[in-house]
Amino acid sequence: MAAPAVLLLLVFLIVPVVLGFVLSFTNARLISPEPTSFTGFDNFVRAFTADPTFFRSVLNTFAFAAVVVPVQAGLGLVLAILVNQKIRGAVAFRVIFFIPVVTSIVVVSILWKFLYQPDGLINSFLDSITFGAWQGTAWLNNPSTALTAIIVLSVWQAVGFHMLIWLSGLQTIPGELYEAARIDGAGPWRQFRDVTWPCLRPTRVFVLITITIAALGLFVQIDVMTQGGPVDSTSTLVYHAVRMGYRQQQIGYGSALSLVFFVLVLIVALVQRVLTREKD
Amino acid sequence: MAVDMGERVLRRRRRLWIYLAMTGLAVFFLFPLVFMFVSSLKPDGQILSDVGGWRAFLPVGDISLGNYSGVFDRVPVGRFLLNSLFVTTVVVVAGLVVNSMAGFAISRMRWTGRGLVLSVVIATLIVPFETIAVPMVYWVTRLPTLVFENGWIAYDIGWLDSYEVQIIPFIANGFSVFLFAQYFSTIPAAIDEAARIDGAGWFTIYRRIAVPLSGPAFATVAILTFLPAWNQYLWPSMVVQDEDLRPVMVGMQYFFQENTAWGEVMAYTSMITLPVLVVFLAFQRAFVSSVAASGVKG
Fold it and tell me: Which residues 138-167 of B have a C-beta within 8 angstroms of A?
């Protein structure tokens, strides 16, 4: 009875993984008059020595992840603690914070592109709270603000998901622990530091790892909003792999770049294993 | 008494701060969407002139559904919606069948290779789709397919521009198999044995016992597979060029690239966001517990 699923996973997951590995060492193109041939490590040599956009894309990907991971995890935890309070209306707020998650990231990217326009909502808002001192800027056309602008909307869209993961972690902490802490005279901060934080260890690992892997795979926002520009300031690893592998039809090179991304993900997954092992 | 009073004031003040913080955050999470829905009802000139103040968030002025009919006049958005609906439905329903059967076989039946299959299924969980997207394009252009031509079945190569290329690769899902296997393993084994003694085959046990007892698992998997299927973007943008087969998200990106009439763009985005939002609000409890279930990996 497992046969259909196993067959499908084999054909559409395992074969593509192996194929991607093999193609990385070839000059395969999507449509080519010449037969594909093995080129050894040429694709990787090209990526690391002769492709400045690749280098820039890796840097941007790391910069994006370095900001998004702590901000999204931290804000998610704050939201989870807020909606976990036993007060009226907490469920309604939980629903509101989760709404962006069920909104398609394509929709979100288009919507925020409008908000970020020179005459868009965000500039108008800054203009009115600074009483006209704000001159307005084209957030997405400026190499020094474009990536930050994308970070804001990415966190806005995804943080509700991690709020719920944190929340399910919070709800596994037995109430007696807090009672005991309160009897010992611990205030809210001590309770958080000595009860909540240590108890959330497994959740913490999961949240950090899933955000990291998702952040390293940044693609849709870039494709819809900036196409990697201006001057490569928002190009990312996956975006560059798709641009080379699909749009320029250099399947071999695109596969090699995807493989670099996969190795990064494997390293993160390995770190997760080590971190969860320690606990036992 | 004095201490009690002090504590009550303190608690009330704390609660006030929590409400203030949550309201501020709610504004942050809602303002773009409110702006989107409201702007979809306004003509372009008014959207831009309203942007400076509160009117940007209020359905006031020259309100109409003109932008919506404009979208329908320009692109076959009805067709895009049907395509996405069809692809999503088949991916979710076929996924429920195929993955629950695999989960059942892994958790309840004893067979050689079971351990290997389970570890392969778990290994697939760490492969993000982005890592295989490029080689997968190459792969599907070389897969065989059957086509109907003048009443005859013919053999062809390449899956580009079809429904199957949007559906079949996404039916089997390692995480769904894993969730089903976990859920089925909570059903007491004694039930299987009793049914076996009564002469029931494995498929009967699956269909008559395991499936009816596992409603929550089916709901969770349906919700977790529905959203990514509806939101598919990277894959169809690479393998579907034919407008008749285009799903909503890709259709919207094309529309957005060719169009700077913001009112119509907002009408398009509102149109494909509203149905999902309504489903979410109707089943928000189920959504929440599904997401919580997806955290079990950790």
Answer: 138-139, 141
